[in-house]
Design goal:
Elements: E1 9-10, H1 11-23, H2 31-43, E2 49-50, H3 53-59, H4 62-84
Antiparallel strand pairs: 1-2
């Protein structure tokens, strides 16, 4: 495998991470919950692969960035709602 392929990543992963960190859920939820939340949110979003984060700044319009951020908010909110339903709570 070419070592340059390791630089490629899904930009939505960054957006989801930043949004979840902003919610400060790690103060009230365990790591399993947070990991499930990432998976559920990312599975609702399209892949948007990039090599460098700076590419998003220069080659993506403000409208497109806003659209991506709104999709992340919706996906995370839906995932939190699903995880917090009584019938989906993990038995511990």
């Amino acid at each position: 495998m070419d070592s340059k392929l390791g630089e490629v990543h899904n930009y939505y992963e960054t957006l989801v991470r930043d949004y979840i960190e902003g919610l400060e859920l790690t103060n009230s939820k365990d790591q399993d919950y947070i990991t499930d939340l990432y998976c559920l949110a990312l599975n609702q979003l399209p892949a948007h692969y990039i090599r460098y984060g700076v590419d998003m700044f220069f080659y993506t319009s403000d409208e497109k960035r806003l659209e991506m951020e709104e999709k992340v908010i919706y996906a995370v909110t839906a995932a939190v709602s699903w995880l917090d339903k009584d019938e989906h709570k993990r038995k511990g």
